Amino acid sequence: MPWFHLTVSHQTRLDPQQAWDFLNDVANLERMTPPEMRFKFLGDPHKPLSLGSILVYSIRPLPLYKTLWVSEISAFEPPNRFCDTQLKGPYGSWIHEHRILKDQNSEGCTIVDDIYFELPLGILGTFLYHLYVRRALSKAFAFRRKQLDLLIQNDANLDYQFTLKPLNA
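The structure corresponding to this sequence follows.
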């Protein structure tokens, strides 16, 4: 099964500490996920993230398919980066690194998401990638961008980039 690499970068007016605090508030995950995915965090939203934290959510990644997604915080380097790795969920594998980069020419920062994933189901997973997953991820991150801009009162004209490609392509 092929692996895919998704990179999203989103320039913000937040300083790096504000961005870190925002991303580490699990309540913001629900706010930044499209409503049709019915994302629900099932843990204590007030418990701070740390290395080894286990996060459990209910999510509907496909129409009519609801599942649990369990991930572990596998890297935690405040206020620069953290990584969540899927232990159980809709993907064959999912490794999501969140980085916060101080902008050199402003007070703000850029939030960078690097996601490496593979789909389950062999050739059927590849078919689903082309039929649905690629567009669904693009739509989910476009929604996330819009919500983040609204929640932090960001300038929508700041740089945003979305790249999704198979590895070794």
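The chain has one domain: 3-166.
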